[in-house]
Amino acid sequence: MAKQDRGAAWAEIRRLVTAKDAAERWGLGLSRDNKRALCPWHDDHNPSLSFYSAKGIGKCKCHVCESGGSCIDLVMQLDHCDAPTAAQKINEAFNLHLDLGSQGDTAPRAAAPAAEKVDRTSLPGMTVHTAAAKPVKEKPREIIDWDHPVAHYDYVDQDGKLVYQVIRLKTTDAETGKVGKTFRQRRPDGSGWIRSVPPEAYDAAPIYHLPDALQAIREGRPLYIVEGEKDVETMRRLGFAATTNARGAGQWIDAGKALMAGADVIILPDSDPWDEVEAKSYKGQKAAWALARDLLPIAKRVRLVDLKAAWPDMPAKGDITDMVDALGDHEALQLLARQEKQTRTFDPDGAQFWLPPVEQAKQYMARVPGYALMGGKICQYTGDGDAKPLANFFAIPVEQRYRDDGIDATMSFTIDGWADGGRKRLPRVTIPAGRFESMSWITESWGLDASLMPGSTVKDKVRWAIKECGRQAAVSVTEYIHTGWRKIDGRWCYLYHGGAIGADGITVSLGKGSALTRYRVDGQDGPAASVSMKDACRESHDFLNRAPIGVSAPLLAMMYLAPLREWLASVGLQPSFVLYLEGETGSKKSTITALALSHFGNFNNRTLPASFNDTKTAIQVMGFRLKDVPLVIDNYHPSADARERRSQQAILQTLALSIGDGAARNRGTAEADLQESKPPRCLAIVTGEQMGLAHDPGGLARFVVLQVGRTDVFDVDDPDDQRRARLTMAQKRAADGWLQKAMRGYIEWLIPQAEQLPGMLQQKLEKYRTIIGARASGLHSRAPESLAQLCTGFEMMCTYFISTGAMTPEQAATEMNAAMIAMIGGSKEQSRIDAQQTPGNVYMDHLHSLITTGRVGIMDIANGFNPNAQPRDMIGWRDLDWYYIQPTEARREIAKACREEGEDFTATPQALNRDLERLGLVADANRATIVKRIGGKNERVYRFRRADVDGSADPDPEPTQLSIDDGDSGESIFPD
After folding, report:
1. Which domains does the chain have, with CATH numbers?
2. H/E segment holding residue 877
3. Could you please report the per-residue DSSP string of 740-780?
4. What is the CA 246 to chain-centroid distance, rounded?
5. Which of 34, 35, 104, 54 is nearest to 76 (CA)?
6. Per residue in 114-161, pLDDT tens?
């Protein structure tokens, strides 16, 4: 063959086969991104041979020794042969079928010295180098530990057969000893490994975990694409289908992309910054954008999720694994799911989220016809093509938020702004949607920094431009501002501040800085993460040992009754009572209540959500937002200040009427329509030194009162009392999240039963009403209902504990029986005390005290009326059998005596009369007062028997002990 013909053939080889193709076929060690290889011209341990294209020829060049050339040059060096032999080998390896004539000299020759240029002047078709060779740039020798891979990642084909591995290797700098890492690829050869991967291997296994990814696509599940195998394993551990490719970001081959047909793709790019040293801008994000653009035509849906927006503290070059490691599984999943919900389907023409705000704003404004962003100002194009400024700033709505409280939903816009050509960031502003149209918020929020140009229509134009930018840029967020059960997207979930059980990505906020933000049912991250559900439930059950069972059982039952309120309310049987812990200062009633409330968050006796120092309105708002959880109102105490005393009593009365009855006041609108009422949706617990509604029988009936003795929690005077140490340990575990974990498990246990719960709970409630009604006569008419609800909560708790292995059915039946006996016994004692605290009894007690102590005067008319014998502060008369008491005067003195004791006698005259009639204390059972002629005048008086006033009546008998087992059928509540 003629020399020129052979040169043409070699030129064709160089045109058809790139240096990179030759490197891959000859098994040269490639970098992970396949853009570099180990240089064969010198002792290379860190890939320094780069591949590039020049005039249609794929070449290579080492940036250390500056050797390189075409595919023929590379094969010459790799196989130590001359150019004709190298050309023939390439011709055969790639099946080019070119006529190269005689192969020429095939004897091997020595490789060129590492520090010298290869002399190619005698080689046909080679470029002649006439310049002097440059000295080799020495790099620190990097030693790779091939024998001990730190990690390996198997790439398999569709049948699960291993094709090749990506391995992570430890490197050591020979000079400094610094340890690093590198990634290499290898393929099995039956007895060992070959440190190279040919192109056909990538075609067989183009993506990581190929079979699982294909199954996810077939099942319609989202498939996450991340940048590295480590991130894939993180996502798989969290329960998601995920994949990547072995060649690195931006190096997806067509075979891998084709597999994404019909897939719901979610791409999670690394959060790469601008690299000032290498001048590489946002490499990971750009590669992900290009991949999303390629997949959009074939995938079912493509979303490109900004992890930096999900977690603003994401470090430079951070990824999903960094996010999980820093935040824990639960928190990271919530943030990721929330960001996914806010991410729209990928728009290849949209603004790139990693760009600076000014650049993003330019892209948004460019899509608003007739408008542009120039010099950081909102401008409008005129008829002659010029751009006229409309404002000296620009603004982008970044969020439209719906705040949903379960009855009403309001909308607001969050807007970012910049002035001074984009150099000055203006304060972020959030405004109600209804205020946006007026544009007055610009001056109100940004003052002199942001101004509109003069003109009658400028405001309308700026408003339009900003709103159109917001339509492209703003994410839409639904924020729930209540706790408890909610059906979202057809599924029941339980909301708490910061998240939800049963659904991911739900935004729940109870107000920044408010005490309600402590309501969190996490228990998944932190110290409790390693605690088993069984042990968490045992810790919850052990609360029964923190106080006498008459206190601990109803308090614990209240915790497990709260999540049942939604289902009971659906059949009109929501809990209609307030739990009241009454005890003197130092009895630790707030401490034991805070420990119980720790099932729903991190609480102690100083961080309870509400107190009687709060306003009545604030407590009503809390009662509405805290749905299906307990609300504790702490520290009712008598006050010498009449105004404060009346304020606290008003709060108690509101709780009795609203929470006790589940009702709220109706509200009117400006259009004279009725608004939806917002009744309390919580279960209420009150702590206090005494019952503040002692003189209101209607209010008292709505309370279940627990008496907490001074030494019930632990004996404050006994330093050796072991209950103190056990309580301290229980508080430590509660702070670590043990009780939250038990409650979270309970709610997760309830979710699959949601549709059956209303009927099931109704049956249980009726069962306990019957049992309690038959065995506890003498209770207030509302007591059996309240106790039945507590017993229902206690039984559901026990059934849940059995399901976790924390309790046996036999233990549960024993606990249930003991708790019911204790609660009924406590209610009987409460009824006895309440009977003594009715207005009639309180009136008679104080009347007796005032008369016997001589604080009021009584004229004795047994021997006739003597007008000169009228005593001081007289309130009535008496004869041998009766007292005749003046209602107004006596009431005034009794009210005065009550105030001196820190109480208010709040019963109205009508309520007092009815109670005196009910108790049979007045002479005529049908009327409280009579007209009696005394001293020649008609006097309207109460007529009381002297024995009732002077105190000769028999005291109330002691309550009898009750056994729930009396007359029982013998059936166990918890069958095996």
Report:
1. 3-138 (3.90.580.10), 140-204 (no CATH), 206-354 (3.40.1360.10), 363-478 (no CATH), 499-835 (no CATH), 838-950 (no CATH)
2. strand 874-878
3. HHHHHHHHHHHGGGTTTHHHHHHHHHHHHHHHHHHH-TTS-
4. 35
5. 104
6. 333 334 333 333 333 333 444 444 555 678 888 889 999 999 999 999
